[in-house]
Amino acid sequence: MFLQQTFVALGRALPAVIAPAIIADLRLEAAWIGIYFGVMALSALVAQLGCGSFIVRYGALRVSQIALVMLTAGAAMAALGTPVPLILSAIIGGGGGAVSTPASSHLLSRCTSLRYLPLVFSIKQTAVPAGLLLAGVLGPPLTEWSSWRVTMLLCAAACAVLAVVLQPLRRIFDTDRVPTRRFRFSDFKATLTVVLATPGLRALSFACLAFNGVQTVFTAYFVTYLTTIGYTPVAAGFLFSVAVAVAVPGRILWGWIGSSYVSPSLVMAGLALAMAGSAALLALSSAGWPVLLVGLVACVLSATALSWHGVLLAETARASPEDMRGGVTGGVLSFGQVGALLLPLIYSGFLDLTGSYGIGFIVCGLPALLVGVQLLRQRASTRVRT
């Protein structure tokens, strides 16, 4: 599951990391990055809401393979570089990448004790920054060595190879599948009903919306933003990789703390406040700032906005009906896709209106600030009642 999500994260993040080359080659405005990722998020929202029945029927490993095949097709289409294939790339890649997390959550929740869910899910979710790290380290040099189209095709090939490598494991991990399960459009409504009718899941959904929105904005615009304040694409990609590398131990650390020392809700409150603050600091950075200072701000933002997944997903699995964990996880994550859809579009709108990259970072950090404050208020009221 770690490998599956690493390659999915690589395929989804690579267009943002090599965006300067794509923009220059296709003569696009930078605001189109947000639109591309907005389309990807919309596709992901639909896929995550409806993936529960497919996971039950075909098995979590088979759905993981399907996700990788869809990322292969999406990356290959993006390499064509014309408008229609680019939109199809966002739709296919977004939908394929979105089902990888519910599938892996479904599989791992079957063989993990509830106490250690935050830690185990955090370890699994380190695959996302690992994929972003690969994108940052390999994407810009490969693009300079060849072209951004060749880089996308190499990514497509890597996803296809892993999908084939996973095949022998299916007979081990898909033993719980129910071949008679059918997909119904009412599954969308059923998933939303469970999520919205359960107070804990409802709160997690809004947190997911805020957190995933900040993560998507950071992933989509960070490299391009640095190139506007004097960094070369390779230097910006390297700094992005260094920042993302911090998220790997960060995810494990937050999961360990949430499993052993502090309540998961308090961990998420701290992450929310820190990501809002670091997003505001990033907005204030300029060409005159030392590289180490910009890197420190980026590392804090990465250690929060890219490191919340394991704790939140573990809480989601804990609050979900046992036979619906994959579907309900997809339902909560679909709210995250709403954030990944809206916040990049809001960022693009502010960028288009003001020409400033900084304002968008501040505005997109506000929902996380609200989540942090609300979680602390809920904790305080709970302690007063007890």
Structural notes for this entry:
There is one protein chain. By secondary structure, the protein is an all-alpha fold. Helices cover 83% and strands 0% of the residues. It has 19 helices and no strands. α1 packs antiparallel against α6. The longest helix is centred in the middle third of the chain and has 30 residues. It is globular.
Q: How is this fold's topology laid out?
A:
Layout: H1 2-17, H2 19-26, H3 32-50, H4 52-58, H5 60-78, H6 83-98, H7 100-109, H8 117-125, H9 127-145, H10 148-165, H11 170-173, H12 186-197, H13 199-228, H14 233-260, H15 264-284, H16 291-305, H17 309-319, H18 325-354, H19 357-385
In short:
This protein has 19 helices and no strands. It is mostly helical.
What brief labels describe this structure?
single chain; 386 residues; mainly alpha; 19 helices
Class by alpha and beta content = mainly alpha
Distance between the termini: 40 Å
DSSP strand count: 0
* Coarse shape: globular
Q: Which series of helices and strands comes N to C?
A: HHHHHHHHHHHHHHHHHHH
Q: What's the overall average pLDDT, rounded?
A: 84
Low-pLDDT parts are none
Q: Mind telling me the C-alpha Rg?
A: 20 Å
Q: What is the helical fraction, as a range of percent?
A: over 70%
Oligomer: single chain
The main pleated sheet reads as: none
How large is the count of helical segments?
A: 19
Portion in beta strands:
under 5%
